[in-house]
Design a protein that fits this description.
The chain is mainly α. It is 64% helix and 5% strand. A hairpin with a 2-residue loop joins strand 4 and strand 5. The longest helix has 60 residues.
């Protein structure tokens, strides 16, 4: 009876403890779920806030002018309803007419020369002093007549003007009309009426021939040739000011349209005059300040369209690019790159709309493609072009040009992973723009605007800024692109050089594994550059204890002979943590370090574990000290590395390898990894794994020169 009571008490107490434990676990699980939901909720709220900030920035920077809603082309039918003038507006001359009138007005401006009277007065005074100094008082010539004759010749030549040579007037001929400013009075004259210095001596001789015998002609000739100076000078500033005045006097308009007047009827061909009228109406729309009601209408319309485009982008990204959009950092980078193109485009449209073709819009596709993938690059570019087209003057042509350029950019980026792809993409962008521009131009006219061609060329040049910008955003956001991966995969990098010098066997093994990973990922799809780089670095931890790994040992002796199984397992497992430490010191990106973490997953060092079991028969051996810390692979690239690493290492133990031995080796290793659940966190399908088997078998047979056994007839 007493034992029964004690048993009942113990049973009830145990049941109470178990129920309390279950309750506590349920409570803890419930609290954990609440915190997880809160964390996910805040994460989603953060994404929404980022999109709202992008919408606000774009909406804030959009031009606040009325939007001209009609598309039209010269010599093409008017595709809209009959258009009536909504208000009075002038008809502006087109650019070709204005350029022609400007050139004509500038050509009609005469070169302006300035008469320097002070120079003439100084020379005249000096001439009188020289005459007095050289006159011989005993001369038989009449002094007063000689002085009078001297002044007459000097005043005649200097008064007519002696022009100074100037490169700007070298093309003038004697009949050219010029303007001469003297004493603030401008008069017209023939350029040939002015003396040049080469003509002065002949003019002096000619005038002295008519002087009487009472004058000392020889003395006068010497004095005049020494005293006459240039006193008429070309003035570039006055000429330019006069030309600017003439150009500014040109009227920008040549008529006007009254409110309610018919501009063009439906189906009517857009002729040259109507084209000018439509351009003038569009210009007035773009410059006309909006009234209060109109301004509110435009603001709300712009806000709705911007929000709609960003909403579509978010829905599209979450549906088709969920891996990218699952991380807030990626969304911030994506929107930052987008704003880097859209907002400067709006600024250009507001202040210099003619320069919009210089904006390197395709930079966005190149940078997004480098950070993420080309499909996301194309879609992001389309959304950005939609935003910009809300403000540009000719949205249809702009969008068509940008879509063509985007396609060729994505095509150029997909064919190569070298640094030359940025130059190739820039050239493709320029020629894509150029061909579309020429096609649109030849639809309406045969005259090419070479200024636009120059802007398109500058656009292509600016596209090559992608490379430094990518490197900048890599540092800011801590992401890795194929650019940095290619630099890391260079075997002359410091860490790989140290691996080659310290553990040459491991280095050769890593190169073989990198080649195997590349071949497999070419077949099943994946980032081959990332996988190759990860494969080269996956065993760098062996630098610390190279001789404890078979590929670096020489001869039959192994350091493990002097260690216990547990100590050996600890050294083998530590190459993962050592590799992570060395990679961090060398500033290797986390995406590459993930290959170091996961290349053994959560498997055991079976060799030492089995030896420990044999050494202690009948005892239960704790597998924890013999197990890698993981995690298991979580991408197809890291999973392929695990396969290639194990298979390449194990293949060296094959004696006389043949097709069957290699096939059994590959199948056995991959089957064990699948049974251990190493690929559960990856997106590999059974078909992908089967393809991996085939590629690895084929490559190993090529390495070991194994011929396929053909069936006998």
């Amino acid at each position: 009876m007493i034992l029964s009571c004690i048993w009942t008490i113990i049973f009830n107490l145990a049941q109470s403890i178990i129920e309390n434990q279950i309750t506590n676990r349920l409570i803890m699980s419930w609290i954990k779920n609440i915190f997880n939901k809160m964390r996910l909720g805040y994460y989603r709220i953060g994404k929404v806030i980022v999109f709202f900030m992008a919408i606000a920035l774009v909406w804030w920077q959009m031009p606040r002018t009325g939007k001209f809603k009609y598309e039209y082309q010269l010599s093409k039918p008017w595709q809209h309803e009959t258009l009536y003038a909504p208000f009075d507006f002038p008809i502006y001359k087109n650019y070709e007419t204005l350029d022609a009138e400007t050139e004509a007005a500038a050509a009609e401006v005469k070169p302006i020369f300035v008469f320097n009277d002070s120079e003439m007065a100084a020379s005249r005074n000096q001439l009188f002093a020289d005459f007095n100094a050289r006159w011989n008082a005993h001369s038989h010539f009449d002094r007063d007549l000689s002085l009078d004759c001297l002044y007459k010749v000097f005043d005649s030549i200097e008064g007519q003007g002696i022009v100074a040579y100037d490169n700007a007037t070298a093309n003038l001929h004697p009949e050219s009309e010029v303007s001469i400013v003297r004493n603030k009075v401008m008069r017209s004259a023939r350029y040939g009426d002015l003396y040049s210095m080469n003509e002065v001596a002949d003019a002096v001789s000619s005038m002295l021939e008519h002087v009487g015998t009472h004058c000392d002609k020889k003395l006068l000739s010497e004095l005049l040739n020494g005293a006459l100076r240039q006193n008429v000078f070309y003035n570039a500033d006055l000429t330019k000011a006069e030309a600017d005045k003439a150009v500014s006097a040109i009227s920008l308009t040549y008529g006007a349209v009254q409110k309610g007047e018919t501009i063009i009827e439906e189906g009517q061909i857009v002729d040259a005059h109507t084209y000018d009228v439509l351009n003038s109406l569009q210009r007035e729309y773009n410059s006309k300040s909006l009234s209060g009601d109109d301004s509110l209408r435009v603001l709300l319309s712009q806000l709705f369209l911007v929000a709609l485009i960003f909403s579509l982008m978010g829905l599209y990204g979450n549906k088709l690019h969920d891996k990218v959009f699952s991380q807030l950092r990626n969304i911030i980078l994506l929107l930052t790159l987008m704003l880097l193109i859209v907002i400067p485009s709006y600024i250009l449209v507001k202040f210099a709309p003619g320069l919009i073709y210089m904006m390197p819009v395709c930079l966005l596709a190149i940078m997004v493609g480098s950070f993420f993938n080309l499909r996301l690059a194309f879609s992001t570019q389309v959304f950005a072009v939609m935003l910009i087209s809300l403000a540009v003057p000719n949205p249809f042509q702009f969008m068509f040009m940008q879509l063509v350029a985007t396609v060729v950019t994505v095509f150029g980026m997909s064919n190569t992973r070298t640094h030359h792809r940025f130059v190739q993409a820039a050239l493709l962008v320029f020629f894509g723009y150029l061909l579309v521009y020429l096609a649109f131009t030849f639809l309406t006219t045969s005259e090419v605007d070479w200024t636009v061609v120059l802007l398109l060329f500058l656009n292509g040049l600016f596209t090559m800024l992608a490379q430094p910008l990518i490197m900048l955003f890599e540092r800011i956001f801590g992401l890795t692109t194929s650019l940095s991966l290619m630099e890391l995969s260079n075997t002359n990098s410091p860490l790989l050089r140290e691996l080659a010098a310290t553990a040459p066997g491991t280095f050769q093994h890593s190169i073989q594994v990198a080649n195997l990973c590349e071949e497999v990922l070419y077949e099943i799809g994946g980032d081959t550059v990332l996988a190759r780089t990860g494969a080269l670095y996956h065993d760098v931890g062996k630098i610390k204890n190279p001789m404890y790994f078979t590929e670096n040992q020489h001869g039959a002796y192994s350091p493990h002979n002097d260690l216990s199984n547990m100590e050996s397992a600890e050294i083998i497992i530590s190459h993962v943590t050592d590799g992570i430490e060395l990679a961090h010191k060398a500033h290797v990106p986390e995406r590459v370090i993930d290959f170091i973490r996961t290349h053994h997953g959560t498997r055991r060092t079976d060799y030492f574990y089995i030896n420990e079991q044999k050494a202690h028969p009948g005892e239960e051996i704790d597998p924890t000290p013999f197990t890698y810390h993981g995690p298991a692979p979580f991408s197809r690239e890291t999973a392929v590395l695990m396969m290639a690493d194990s298979i390449e290492a194990a293949s060296h133990s094959l004696k006389d390898p043949d097709e069957k031995k290699i096939s059994d080796l590959v199948d056995g290793i991959i089957d064990k990894q699948m049974e251990a659940g190493q690929f559960l966190n990856t997106d590999l399908t059974l078909h992908d794994i089967e393809t991996c088997r085939k590629v690895l078998k084929k490559k190993l047979m090529s390495i070991y020169h194994v011929r396929i056994a053909y069936p006998e007839k």
